[in-house]
Amino acid sequence: MKNRTTKTPVFKLSKASKKQNSKGTPFPFLPTPNGPQATKKNIPWKSIVAVLLALILGVGMSSCGDTSPKETREYKSLEAQYSQVNTELTNTKRELSETKSSLQTARKKADQWDKEQSAKKAAEEKAAKEEQAKKEQEKQQQEAAAKAAQANAEREKQQKEEAARQAAQQQMQQQQNQQQVPAPQPQQPAPQPQTYSRGSAHRGSFCSGAGSTGQSDRDSSILTCRVAKDGRLRWMN
């Protein structure tokens, strides 16, 4: 950076100042040996203010020309403020990014939770519908079983009534038949064949008079006259 050359401003004294200076007073704005009241009316305040401003400007310009702007306290203060603001901005951006990431994560969790709740609700509704359908089916089956049992009971009752009616009719028919048919006569016992003893007899020989008995001529056994295998009457044990 180029150094700036500072020119010292040249101030011109007014005619009154020159006149005072010619009388032996080098600075007309300073008090005279006779006291401040002797020169109170002759002090040029405008000239004093102008000289002070010129001195201030000259010192400022000389200081600006000799010192780099980056080394001034104002620049360093501004630089420090800028660095602090930049750091805060960086931190704010990082926090904003973290907040956005957290918000996205929270949204994903919320969406997942909503999906899980929807699926759970759908499953509960499906289970409730199935349970209701099962109850209705069981109710229908119970009603059908009750109707079937009632129908069977009525059918059995009708069958019993029909059997009783038929039994009553048969009983009445039998009574009527008994009243119409005369009582049967008692049967007489059939005559028993008469047996006769013929004395001695020979086993296997012909005989007459079925049922007749005789003593065997060989031993003391009793022989009976009856039909043999050949269809004829013979003496047999």
Report a brief summary of the structure:
The protein is 58% helix and 8% strand. It contains three helices and four strands. A four-stranded mixed sheet has the order 1-2-3-4, with no helix packed on it.
Q: Give the spatial strand order of the biggest sheet.
A: 1-2-3-4
Task: Describe the largest sheet.
Answer: 4 strands, mixed
Tell me the helix content: 55-70%
Secondary-structure content class:
alpha+beta
The overall pLDDT average reads: 76
**Counted beta strands:** 4
SSE succession: HHHEEEE
- How large is the count of helical segments? 3
**Proportion of strand residues:** 5-15%
End-to-end Cα distance: 177 Å
Low-confidence stretches: 1-41, 189-195
Radius of gyration: 81 Å
> Which word captures the global form?
rod-shaped
Biased composition (Pro residues): 183-192
Region (Disordered): 1-42, 85-223
Biased composition (Basic and acidic residues): 108-141, 153-164
Biased composition (Low complexity): 142-152, 165-182
How would you describe this structure to a colleague?
Among the domains are: about 15-65; about 70-125; about 195-235, no CATH class. Strands 1-2-3-4 form a 4-stranded mixed beta sheet, with no helix packed on it. The protein is about 60% helix and about 10% strand. It has helices spanning about 15-20, 45-65, 75-180, and strands spanning about 195-200, 215, 220-225, 235. β3 (about 220-225) and β4 (about 235) form a beta hairpin. The model is unreliable at about 1-40 and about 190-195 (pLDDT under 50). It has about 240 residues and is α+β, with helices and mostly antiparallel strands. The chain is rod-shaped and about 215 Å long.
